[in-house]
Amino acid sequence: MEFYPQSLVSLIKHLSKLPGIGEKTAARLALHILRSSDEDAKALSRNILEVKEKIRFCSKCFGLCETDPCKICLNMSRDHTMLCVVEQPNDLVALEKSGAFKGLYHVLHGALSPMSGIGPDALRIRELIERIKTDEIKEVALATNTNVEGEATASYLAQVLKGYPVRITRIATGVPVGGDLKYLDEITLRRAMERRESI
Amino acid sequence: MEFYPQSLVSLIKHLSKLPGIGEKTAARLALHILRSSDEDAKALSRNILEVKEKIRFCSKCFGLCETDPCKICLNMSRDHTMLCVVEQPNDLVALEKSGAFKGLYHVLHGALSPMSGIGPDALRIRELIERIKTDEIKEVALATNTNVEGEATASYLAQVLKGYPVRITRIATGVPVGGDLKYLDEITLRRAMERRESI
């Protein structure tokens, strides 16, 4: 890397801080940026600053937005009695893309992970309880990931929310549509079999 | 993607123009940038502009530099009678890292590829001949890649340079050091066997 000019070394160093980008990939990206048009490079540079300047967390659901509250929270055609709890903004986006949910969201910004020192206070759980207390919520659908941390978070939330007059649900686990049984792990298969349904 | 705020969508769009970065990776990178510190984001943004502003091609070897001629061309402790011809600036860097070459370089900025419409005029071949004519070059080591385009370029250059009083060499092909024979292609193995040496 030290054989590149100083400014290129600096760009490579910063690009390799991005997740999944090693030094070699960073060098490839940096050389691409160097070769790209002035407009493209300027747009990329400006967009990085804009994202940091403009994007806020919605004060209601903690999803990403440029105007607070976010468009989803303001959308009166959505079901304001349903909350879907997700770990991260991209989980929200994945669900929105699927079109499966027409209620409101609540983004925790993480999952419980005692190993990494992430306890309930590090997540937006207090705010979730506040929403359930003050808004007219009828159902809370827990859509945290189905890995260890996500399951632990869902169990914890189910426990914490037990005292409130809301229906608490969890997204179903099973074989993904289009999935190939031979590539699936045993736990998923076992659960899918246990929860088999009459057709 | 349309479910993210506008400025984030724009950043994702620009990041996915980078080589090997699909839309999902771009979204992951964009969210990382959003979560990173203000300093990191600003430094990345500034570095992108700086690279475009500061980095030039050396007017002698066409390698990357911030001051023209580049440090390698100015380094009088290097052998100025030897030229190593490479396709791209990162090939030059790879050779520099290896420490195997102490002469000067000439970067073609590509390889001959009739399929992609890249002919001799698109490369820095005219400038290479000019250097051979005016500078005191004794050897030209052709270190273009060993794929079809690189080999074609090396053959073409060997042909074109035949009339000049320089020794023309080509980097050796064979089994990479630390290589595992069973993973190597047949052509490499055949060549390595043909060029076997007494020990």
Tell me briefly what this model is.
The structure is a homodimer of 199-residue chains. Chain A is an alpha/beta fold and 199 residues long.
Keywords:
homodimer, 199 residues, Dna Topoisomerase Vi A Subunit, Chain: A, domain 2, 2 domains, four-stranded parallel beta sheet, two-stranded antiparallel sheet, 8 helices, 13% strand
Notes on the protein architecture:
The structure is a homodimer of 199-residue chains. Chain A is globular, with a radius of gyration of 21 Å. In chain A, strand 3, helix 5 (89-98) and strand 4 form a beta-alpha-beta unit. In chain A, 43% of the residues lie in helices and 13% in strands. Chain A folds into 2 domains: 6-54, RecR Domain 1 (Helicase, Ruva Protein, domain 3, Orthogonal Bundle); 64-198, Dna Topoisomerase Vi A Subunit, Chain: A, domain 2. In chain A, strands 4-3-5-6 form a 4-stranded parallel sheet. Chain A has a two-stranded antiparallel sheet with strand order 1-2. The longest helix of chain A has 17 residues, at 38-54. Chain A contains 8 helices and 6 strands; from the N terminus they run H-H-H-E-E-H-E-H-E-H-E-H-E-H. The model of chain A has no long low-confidence stretch (mean pLDDT 92). In chain A, helix 1 crosses helix 2 (23-35). Chain A has 199 residues and is α/β, with parallel strands linked by helices. At the A-B interface, helix 1, helix 2, helix 3, strand 2 and helix 5 of A face helix 1, helix 2, helix 3, strand 2 and helix 5 of B.
